[in-house]
Structures are given as structure tokens and as C-alpha cells.
Amino acid sequence: MSTAVTVNKLTFSYSGREKKILKNVSFSVQEGESVGIVGLSGCGKSTLCLILCGAIPSRISGNLEGEVTILGKSIKNYTLSQVGTKVGIVFQNADWQLLTNRVEDEIAFPLENLCWQPEKIKTRVKEIMDKVEITHLAFRAPKQLSGGEKHLVALAAVMSMNPPIIILDEVMSNLDKKSCQRVQQILEVWKKEGKTIIVIDHQVERLRYMDNLYLMQEGRLLPAEVNMIEHYYAKLIRNFFKGAKDHDFA
């Protein structure tokens, strides 16, 4: 089995800021493997996603140290558009990637950029909308949808390109229970097809089905198991309420 993603000693801080968002992060993901990364808001999860999809440093500047390899090739040797054919990502803020005025056009847009034939695009768009169960949204404006619907549309657009590596950044946090289950079913199908999957979330419960789990804590990435992460969160909650109690009686 080949390695899909390798991250080696990755450290990053945004331009004009001294604080290191990522600190010596190293991990690898094999082709066909699913990985979950759990952590509190602000711990560096989304920044890691932006690096893996090439947005950092191509679109967002900062001090980046370390090495990222995608499918055996340094990410530095890809153009941003080339990374886009290898790594499909749905961002935590779906508005970042919704560009058109109709849902069906949003799904067709990446295929048009790849110079697909119109009839082939039409067939593919219908197939993807059926899979994600958003056919009823076909003629709606993406910007006018709910947060959960926007994420489903962004997911459908990623699916249309059929990339070998898929990253979801806090996508299920904005979905209702039924839509969450649908996304998990889609991920299961993708995994059977041999795709590499990285899912970012702050709730470990939604990542129990992943092959491997990591806990991100203050910019550092640690291999973890469900029980370890649950213990970590329980400790945070205890400390929070202890602090509140001490404050009330101070």
C-alpha cells in the first residue's frame, strides 16, 4: 500500500503573528485509509487543512516549515490547480468555495474547468445530486441555502471531480442527524472505492468508524484512541466547572 499523504515536522505561523499555530506536526495516511482529527476550536485543525489543499502558502501567507507530500510528490512541486485534482476539500466555511448562482452549476463548475463535454457534465451532475440527495436544490442559489445545505452542495462539487484524497473540515458539525448519516454513508462508499479520507471534527463520536484517530492540542498532533479523547474532553469539562465554582465563591 502506497502513502497518500505525508506530513513531516510541519510548523506554521500566519504572517505578522508570532504565535505558532502548528508545532512540529508529523503524520502519514496510507492510500485507502480513513483518518479522523479531533480537537477544540482554534487548535490548528483548519490551518492544517489549508496546508494540505495548497491554499497555504499559495493564497494565505505565513512562515511555513517542514514538508508535505501528496501521492509521493512534494506539494511544492504541484500548482494549486494540480493539488485540486488530487485533494478535494470541503471547508468549515462552505461560502469560501460556493461561486455560482445555482446548485447544479456549482457541481458542474469544476468539470467545466476540466473541459468535460456538456452531455457528460449533465449526466455526472445528476448522478452526484442523486447520491447526496440534493436534487430538490438544483435550481436554488447556493448562497441562500442553510449552512448544512451549503456543505452538502460543496461536498457534491468535490465528489464530481472524483479526487483520490478527500478532506472534510468540520462538515458534519453543521448537518442535522439525517444528513450526517448520509455523509457517513458516502464516506463508507468512498473508502470501499479506495479513496483516502481525512475528517476533521470536534466530536469524537462522529469519527468512531475511522481507521486511525489523532488529537490536536494547541498545535500539536498526537496519535489517539476514542477512550483517550473522551478522557481529555471530560478533564477539560471538569476543569471548566471547577474554575467556575472557584470563581463564584472567590
TrEMBL record:
Q: Supply the InterPro entries for this chain.
A: AAA+_ATPase, ABC_transporter-like_ATP-bd, ABC_transpr_CbiO/EcfA_su, ECF_ABC_transporter_ATP-bd, P-loop_NTPase
Keyword Ribonucleoprotein in the entry? The reply is: no
Annotated Pfam families: ABC_tran
| Gene3D superfamilies in alphabetical order | P-loop containing nucleotide triphosphate hydrolases
Source species, domain of life: Bacteria
Where it sits in the cell: the answer is: Cell membrane
Keyword entries, A-Z: ATP-binding, Cell membrane, Hydrolase, Membrane, Nucleotide-binding, Translocase, Transport
What is the topology of this protein in the membrane according to its UniProt annotation?
A: Peripheral membrane protein
Recorded GO MF terms: ATP binding; ATP hydrolysis activity; ATPase-coupled transmembrane transporter activity
Q: What class of enzyme is it?
A: hydrolase
A cellular component term from Gene Ontology for this protein is: ATP-binding cassette (ABC) transporter complex
Give the EC number(s) listed in the UniProt record.
Answer: 3.6.3.-
Q: Which residues form the ABC transporter domain?
A: 5-243
**PANTHER family with a match to the protein in the record:** ENERGY-COUPLING FACTOR TRANSPORTER ATP-BINDING PROTEIN ECFA2 (PTHR43553:SF27), HEAVY METAL TRANSPORTER (PTHR43553)
Similarity comment text for this entry: Belongs to the ABC transporter superfamily.
Protein name (Swiss-Prot/TrEMBL): Putative HMP/thiamine import ATP-binding protein YkoD
This chain's source organism reads Clostridium ragsdalei P11
Task: Provide the organism lineage as a comma list.
Answer: Bacteria, Bacillati, Bacillota, Clostridia, Eubacteriales
